[in-house]
Design goal:
The chain is of the alpha+beta class. Helix content is about 25%, strand content about 25%. It has 17 helices and 38 strands. A nine-stranded antiparallel sheet has the order 11-12-13-14-24-20-19-16-17, with no helix packed on it. Strands 9, 10, 15, 18, 21, 22 and 23 form a seven-stranded antiparallel sheet that branches. Strands 28-31-30-34-35-38 form a six-stranded antiparallel sheet, with no helix packed on it.
Length: about 800
């Protein structure tokens, strides 16, 4: 007989109807059923038990996710059994077998019920129990969400779940309550946030509260659950917030000294600002919404705290596939089949965020396209059975079906939320620039994609076109220099950073010491309003050193085959160079010799598949690595390095190690490369200046102010852009006079362009007045571009150009 503490509820409070969105998620689950059946096995050690994917993955996820998907699908009033080849009754029976298997093999089950000694996935979990008893807070608490899914699935299955199974479910929850029912939430911000851990623990405790609702300790567990869900998203500034919650406690009191998010509402994990872990606050809010709605209860207000502030950052960085922009790289597989549907759905439905509703539909379209192209699978079968991810063989990630299954049930329980914003509304609201000083990055959302620059954790830049991370992978350490120095391990010592922020663009000057302060890294990086990005990076020695290698301009290019994904990822990439092109096919292999490495000798430009056009000049050779073999797989992807020096060489103190200047134009056809221009100016000491179209970009890397002229030959300049400040023109040169403070960056847009002869000084004031003075001995003419009349100016005469 089940314990008295167990809830009397035996059927989920799920409406007997589908919603427009839930129908689309249901179709995804139906396509996956044959895949799940392929990996389901009976477990003969106890009656009526079975598992998925070998039954030995971390935290019971091998079976918890698939059984949840089967149970959720079986609850649908519109389940299409002929489409899946599996009846509703069979789905329920398999889900029940999965529940019973996990109950028996959990720490709270019989000691002799051990998981298989040979399985898929990581060998460390073979022949063990799950529940992770004795392994510490992180793995033990992480079992909470799977435990919650088991209970929800049992309620979805209804009367076929017997008393023995319910008794084991209750015992599992009592075990979790014993471990965490009175524990205080954890605090952690830098390097490894506690956001995700607090989120999953709150989900486990919410399930304890609901499953063991008749226990005399249920109120204690409910209070603890609320503390954990509140502390999932706390920032230091919350200690100054005296607003009271409905239960009388204030934000300040609930926060205490527990912090999980940076003050700019991003979170970092694994040593990087990490969108996946920042999104966990919203994801677990969605999971909490499901838990409470299953039992007919309202989600506590504690689960909403700071979630809108966090989502406002996440939606800014979401691309057209619904994927989040990993500003400092990604250490998990780059392209999750589900890019975050529940994150966006939770924002849409629970926060009533119409932008979230729009972005969820983008993410859902991506999931639909991915599974349509792989026969219903989360991953291509051949690839999944060949490669190994960061933690486990890729095949085990088929358990990711849990993600769309969660979003399916979420909409069944809570509806579809508000009417979505339109694309135009979202872009108008989110486009532009935002600086994140605590996280250490600048972010630009523009008409043709996104651009980011990071100066903390991973020193990198990501210039993305409209395809987002489905063209340029978010590889850690992208684009900016990686230098190796003999006997000097890498290090990061920030000397200065300054960002000249504009509504639609930015320029940043970054000075960093690397390799135990033996290398000075100087970076000027600008994101222009058009979406074009320009940069100049220099490395110089601070001591006499031997440099082992230098890589600059590294970008990882996705080369996947997703047949149903519109306009991208067709299994090949074409690299164009002046006068040549080469097509590289994507794929995987177990033989390193199947890789193809192509080297180019200082081309003026490369164009990546008509998606990124790059003008550049660097110290080393250009390399395209068409990769087939992966020590650790994160995506089928190739590597392009614009400038590589792979031989040791000595550099004296103060000498230049390497440099790279670039202009990157998103969605630029290779036939239009000749229309791009980037001019590097002659500059005062410790400074750098660039002209890119109608933009002037400069930086002073030194600690002291610099005054001087930034000059260029007029060869190849049919017209001269005029910026605020003083410009002098002669027959052969143009000079821009500037004053730059120490460490300062500057981005200016041209006020107008002129075609002129002779010796002129043109001064543009902050008020918008532009005056031209003839410094020569002869009369000269000036014509403002786009105006027909020329202006004649006599010697010493001053005339207004605007």
């Amino acid at each position: 007989m089940p314990p008295k503490s167990l809830t009397k509820l035996r059927r989920a409070k799920v409406p007997a109807r589908e919603t427009p969105l839930s129908r689309r998620y249901r179709a995804i689950l139906e396509k996956w059923v044959p895949v799940g059946l392929q990996y389901f096995e009976e477990w003969p050690q106890r009656p009526n038990c079975g598992h998925f994917f070998g039954g030995c993955h971390w935290y019971g996820s091998d079976t918890a996710g698939p059984l949840f998907a089967f149970a959720a699908l079986a609850s649908s009033p519109q389940y299409d059994a002929p489409k899946t080849g599996c009846s509703r009754k069979e789905l329920k029976e398999i889900a029940l077998k999965g529940i019973r298997y996990l109950c028996f093999t959990h720490d709270s089950g019989p000691k002799d019920c051990i998981r298989p000694k040979k399985s898929l996935g990581n060998r460390r979990t073979w022949g063990t129990k799950w529940g992770e008893k004795g392994r510490g807070f992180f793995p033990e608490s992480q079992c909470g969400p799977n435990m919650a899914d088991i209970a929800i699935a049992a309620l979805l299955l209804g009367r076929i779940v017997d008393d023995e199974t319910w008794t084991m479910i209750a015992r599992m929850h009592a075990d979790y309550a014993h471990r965490f029912g009175t524990m205080a939430p954890k605090s952690g911000v830098y390097t490894n946030t506690q956001m995700e851990e607090n989120g999953w623990t709150s989900t486990g405790l919410a399930s304890v509260e609901c499953v063991l609702s008749n226990s005399p300790r249920s109120n204690t567990w409910a209070e603890t659950a609320r503390r954990w869900m509140f502390s999932t998203a706390t920032a230091q500034q919350d200690t100054k917030n005296h607003m009271a919650l409905a239960d009388g406690g204030t934000v300040r009191q609930y926060t205490g000294q527990t912090f999980t998010t940076l003050p700019d509402y991003m979170a970092e994990n694994h040593g990087m600002v990490h969108p996946s872990y920042t999104a966990s606050s919203l994801n677990f809010t969605g999971r909490l919404g499901m838990v409470y709605a299953t039992y007919g209860l309202e989600t506590p207000e504690h689960a909403f705290f700071n979630r809108q502030k966090i989502y406002d950052q996440l939606k800014r960085t979401t691309d057209r596939t619904g994927s989040l922009h990993p500003i400092q790289g990604m250490d998990w597989p780059y392209l999750s089949p589900d890019p975050g549907t529940l994150t966006h759905a939770a924002a849409a439905v629970m926060l009533k965020d119409a932008d979230g509703a729009y972005l969820e539909r983008l993410a859902l379209e991506t999931v639909e396209a991915r599974v349509d192209g792989t026969g219903g699978r989360m991953h291509d079968q051949d690839i999944a059975e060949t490669v190994h991810g960061p933690q486990d063989p890729l095949i085990i990630r088929e358990t990711g079906i849990a993600s769309p299954a969660h979003t399916y049930l979420f909409h069944r329980l809570l509806g579809d939320g508000p009417r979505p914003s339109t694309r135009a509304q979202v872009e108008k609201k989110l486009r532009g620039v935002k600086i994140y000083p605590h996280s250490g990055f600048a972010f630009q959302r523009h008409a043709r994609g996104q651009t980011s620059l990071s100066w903390r954790n991973s020193i990198m830049a990501l210039p993305l076109n409209k395809d987002g991370i489905y063209t340029v992978a978010p590889a850690t350490d992208s684009f900016l220099a990686q230098v190796r120095v003999k006997n000097q391990p890498d290090s990061q010592d920030l000397c200065s950073v300054h960002v000249d922020e504009h509504p639609e663009g930015f320029a940043a000057a970054l000075v960093m010491d690397r390799a135990q302060r033996t290398v000075r890294q100087e970076i000027l990086y600008a994101a222009l309003p058009s979406g074009v990005s320009v940069s100049c990076e220099r490395l110089r020695a601070l001591k006499n050193i031997t440099v082992s290698s230098v890589n600059q301009g590294f970008l990882r290019i996705i080369n996947e085959s997703f047949p149903s994904l519109r306009g991208n990822c067709n299994g090949r990439r074409t690299l164009y160079t002046p006068g040549d092109s080469h097509q590289f096919m994507g794929g995987v292999s177990t033989d390193p010799n199947d890789d193809i490495v192509q080297t180019y000798d200082h081309p003026e430009w490369v164009n990546l598949d008509n998606r990124l056009g790059i003008l550049f000049a660097g110290s080393g050779k250009t390399v395209y690595h068409n990769r087939r073999y992966y020590d650790v797989w994160r995506a089928v992807a190739d590597d392009v390095t614009l400038s590589r020096i792979d031989r040791p060489f000595r550099v004296k103190n103060g000498g230049e190690i390497a440099s790279l200047s670039t202009l990157i134009a998103p969605d630029c056809n290779h036939s239009a490369m000749d229309t791009l221009s980037l001019s590097q100016l002659r500059c005062p000491k410790s400074t750098v200046g660039l002209i890119a179209g109608n933009y002037f970009i400069a930086a002073n890397f030194g600690p002291k102010p610099r005054t001087g002229d930034f000059g260029s030959s007029r060869v190849g300049m049919p017209s001269i852009p005029i910026f605020e400040g003083t410009t002098t023109c002669s027959g052969s040169t143009v000079k821009y006079h500037r004053v730059l403070n120490g460490g300062e960056s500057q981005l200016q847009v041209a006020l107008l362009s002129v075609i002129c002869k002779g010796n002129l000084e043109i001064t543009a004031s902050e008020s918008g007045q532009i005056l031209a003075r003839n410094r020569g001995r002869n009369r000269t003419t000036v014509r403002v571009v786009d105006k027909t009349d020329a202006i004649k100016i006599g010697p010493g005469e001053i005339k207004s150009l605007k």
